[in-house]
Write a structure and sequence with these properties.
single chain; 396 residues; alpha+beta; OB fold (Dihydrolipoamide Acetyltransferase, E2P); Dihydrolipoamide Transferase; Chloramphenicol Acetyltransferase; 3 domains; seven-stranded mixed sheet; 9 helices; elongated
Amino acid sequence: MNIDIKVPILGESIVEGTLARWHKKVGDPINAGEIIADLETDKVNIEVSASATGTVTSLHKHEGETVAVGELIATVDTTATATVTSHASDTTPASVAVPAPATTPATSDAPATPVARNVAAETGVDLRTVSGSGPDGRITKSDVIKASTPAPVAPVAPIVASNSRREERVKMSRRRQTIATRLVQAQQTAAMLTTFNEVDLTRVMDIRKRKKDSFKEHNGVGLGFMSFFTKATVSALKAFPAVNAEIQADEILYKYYYDIGIAVSTPDGLVVPVLRDADILSFAGIEKGIESLAKRARDNKLGLAELSGGTFTITNGGVFGSMMSTPILNMPQVGILGMHKIQERAMVMNGQIVIRPMMYIALSYDHRIIDGATAVRFLVHIKDLLEDPDSLLLEF
């Protein structure tokens, strides 16, 4: 009996994905519950499992193709043997025909991102020969590109300009396509403006220096800046509800819960996992939550529920050295806070020039429902709490 394997429901508002990788080829035996394919969506990668034990007789889609929810992608014969029949061979797509082991980079068992596997397939790189530089040895796109580039040979004559005009065309991943679409949508839909301020982090850094060892010993996690900024942000959102709202047609939906999105950079692009109920979390709870979300994001293990429903977003370009930026809204949210690099600067305090660890902070906001005065006061609220963290710790 033939069993159809179809694209499962991918999550809220997701109607299609990209077939990133086949784990099986025509003629392979497969057990019920065993992974047959990886699907890449704009939020997470999803594994598709077989619903019955049998033999794969047909693969209906190529790697890299777009597939819709409910669409047929493979067929399993529960009565067939592992031998490939001539009919199965005839129905096998060209890109998934059984190749020789030396030319199967896209089906190697090497731990690689879907984008890396696609690039490997296009360039003919065997992933088994590539060393990964990503988290836990995961092979990234740059690793494949590096492996596909011949080692340089010492020139015997000056290199002419034409030798350096190398180009490469790589299809955008599903996640990168969605990021591009949503960023353009944010700029075209929202009346987006950005306001800036600067924060003196002297007292926050003093607390971290004095308490970091005992904090980690007691809680099992480091005391970072994100817990201070998250606490200050939640306080500001409570003081200015419009920044925690959403526009729906001609109505404003005010949200009195605080699910804070934390932007995380991964080898496959930016994701924004959500720290739920940040207002009731302790400093340790915030640090543990962010650490767990960031690790799961880099390991590509986030679930759809962890990526949906944020009310406000914090992004930290400072970890990459950014001094100032204008973050783009994460629609349908109407505000996003940008953190930047901490830089020692000469500041005038009480008529004296002193050195202080300063950070520029930015609030991008939707001017349709947030006035400029509200945006400025929101940032000042955060600034005041961070410069007087005693009030932040005492939550008033």
